[in-house]
Amino acid sequence: MTFHVTTLEAIVAMAVVTYLTRVVGMLVMRWDRFSVRGRARAALDAIPPVMFVTIIAPTLLVTGWPETLAGLLAAAASVRLPLLGTILVGVVAVAVLRLGLGVPGVP
C-alpha cells in the first residue's frame, strides 16, 4: 500500500469542511431570530436517521447475506433500543453470523 500526500490533503480538507459546516449550522440554529418549529423541526430531526440509512444501506446490499441479515436485526432493534444498543446488536450479529458461517477473511 502506498501513501500519497494528495490523499491525505483530500481527507484533511473534507474533515475541515465537514467540521465548519457543523459549526456554522449550530451557530445559525442558536441565533435568536431563527426559530424552528413544526414541520421544519420534524424535517431537521429526521436528518440523522436518513443519513445513517444512506451510508449503511448500500453496504448491506452489496456485501454478503450475513451483513444484510445483521443490518435487518439492527434495524428491528432500533425500534426499542437507543443508538448505542442498536450499534451493539448490529456488530454482535454480524460477528456471530460471520463466525458461525465460516465466512472467509474472519479470524
Characterise this structure.
The chain is an all-alpha fold and 107 residues long. Helix content is 78%, strand content 0%. It is flat. The two termini are 22 Å apart. The model has no long low-confidence stretch (mean pLDDT 83).
Give structural attributes.
single chain, 107 residues, mainly alpha, flat
| Tally of individual helices | 4
What structural class results from the helix and strand content?
Answer: mainly alpha
From the alpha-carbon coordinates, what is the Rg to the nearest angstrom? 19 Å
Main sheet properties:
none
Blueprint (SSEs and pairs):
Blueprint: H1 5-30, H2 38-62, H3 65-77, H4 83-101
Helix pairs in contact: 2-3, 3-4
Task: Please give a quick description of this structure.
Helix content is 78%, strand content 0%. It is mostly helical and 107 residues long. The longest helix has 26 residues, at 5-30.
